[in-house]
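Example record used in the benchmark description.
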Amino acid sequence: MEGHHLILGKTTDFITGETIEDTHDERYRQNIAQLLVNNKSYEKKDVKPHYDLLAQAGNKKAIIKVDFLISLEKRVCMIIRYGPGSITTRHRPAIAASRLVADYQIPIVVVTNGVDADILDGLTGKIISTGLDAIPAKPELVKLSAKFAFPQISETRAEAESRILYVYDVDGSCPCDNSICRIES
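Model output (C-alpha cells):
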C-alpha cells in the first residue's frame, strides 16, 4: 500500500549516511539530528535513528518507529519522538515507548513536531521544559542521568505500556501510514 507522505526525492541521513526518502517529516527529523550533533554536543555514535519498536495489544502486533535513541555509556538516556501537529497528544505514547525500548525507565523523553518540543520526565510524564533549545545537551544529560536510578520495568508494566503504545500509534491510524508496520498473526 502506498504511503501518504509526499516523496520529494532522496536525501542522506545525517547520522547514518544512508540514502533515505526525502519527505517533509524526514526534513524535520534531519534538522533534529543536526541540532543534536551540531548544537547539543552529541556524537553521531550517541544517536540511533529510526529505532524499530514492537507494540503489541493481545494478538495484534506492529512495529513503530522511535525517531532517536540517545545513549551514554551504552545506556539509553533519552528518546525523541517526532510527529507533525499537536505534541500534547503525543506525550502518553512517548512515555509508553520510553518504557519499552529497554528493560529500564528512560529518564528523558522528548516529543516534538520539529518546531516545538516538550521535554518530559520519563518517570512521571510531567513536562520539565519546552522548546527545541531546551532539549538537554550532552553535558546536561550526563548530569541528569547520573542522578537517575534507571528502575527496571516489570513484565506486567511493559505489557500494559505496549498496549497503550499500540492503541495510540496503531489503532485508528491511517491504513496508508507506511511508518507503521502491522504484523499479521
